[in-house]
Design goal:
Strand order of the largest sheet: 7-8-9-3-10-11
Number of helices: 10
Helix content: 25-40%
Shape: globular
Largest sheet: 6 strands, mixed
Radius of gyration: 20 Å
Length: 278
């Protein structure tokens, strides 16, 4: 059996408060191959902090520590900041929440995508421009040369998301962390963007961590699912087995999802006393 792409043991992330430090990720462990892993939970459950911690993006006064955090044989905790900058983007990319607003408003789309590649590879200008055009075509943008000359405010929300995906994938990373990549889009565009991410991940043999609060979405696009609550993983299962989840928190999340043909008089809410001991 081949070694996992990512191996994390007992990851902890904390921040100071007036009453002392609070752990927002509490002893998380996971392994990931070149597969699609979904991390789900409510806002504040520690999903995004987990993604940022993998890239060592927790800044003071925040702290992160782990017993083990290995990416493709590389001990991430032993790397200095310069070494981490070489890994970020080139080997591990992250699409942040509402990615269109992560774009630089004073740089053209093409210049920003090219910059993401130029940081990690030295290419002649003609080859660089060809790679940018190829990547824009890969994210299904028609007339890529025209779009490359546009500024972020000139593109639609869906196109802005595609541009950001192109920027993250043009260095051809081994692992993509997508943190709520479609939260600002309407449902029809969400499906198009997620189908696109899924296709690119499969075609390039990458690993994917999809962070979301949408159970149905991760069940559709992922192979495995981790359910987080209050910084801890409370359940791990195959995506196809999500409906058979046993933990009360996961069962509560599933029950609270509205249905298209709703017949219940009242939408259930989470009964936290079932697992919190209160």
């Amino acid at each position: 059996m081949s070694a996992p792409l990512l191996d994390i043991a007992n990851l902890r992330v904390s921040f100071p408060t007036p009453n002392g430090r609070v752990d927002v990720v509490k002893g998380l462990s996971l392994t990931l191959g070149r597969e699609r892993l979904g991390i789900v939970g409510e806002s504040g459950s520690g999903k995004s902090m987990t993604g940022r911690a993998i890239l060592r993006l927790i800044r003071p006064p925040g702290r992160q520590a782990a017993d083990r955090m290995i990416f493709d044989g590389i001990d991430l905790q032993a790397q200095g900041e310069r070494a981490m900058r070489r890994l970020r983007g080139a080997r591990i990319s992250m699409i942040m929440q509402d990615p269109k607003f992560s774009l630089n408003p004073v740089m053209t789309v093409g210049a920003q995508i090219a910059e993401a590649l130029r940081v990690h590879e030295r290419l002649p200008r003609r080859d660089l421009r060809a790679r940018v055009t190829e990547m824009l075509e890969a994210v299904r943008i028609h007339d890529p040369e025209r779009v490359a000359r546009m500024y972020p405010h000139e593109v639609s929300g869906g196109m802005g998301q595609r541009v950001m995906i192109a920027m993250m994938l043009i260095p051809r990373p081994d692992l993509l962390i997508a943190d709520e990549p479609t939260s600002a889009l309407d449902v029809s565009v969400q499906a198009q963007v997620l189908d696109l991410i899924d296709e690119l991940v499969r075609n390039n043999g990458m690993g994917l961590i999809l962070i979301s609060h949408d159970l149905g979405l991760v069940a559709r696009y992922c192979d495995r699912i981790l359910v987080m609550n209050a910084g801890e993983v409370v359940e791990s299962c195959a995506a196809s087995e999500l409906q058979n989840a046993s933990h009360p928190y996961t069962r509560g999340l599933i029950a609270a999802v509205p249905r298209m043909e709703e017949t219940r008089d009242e939408l259930p809410v989470l009964d936290r006393s079932e697992w919190s001991g209160t």
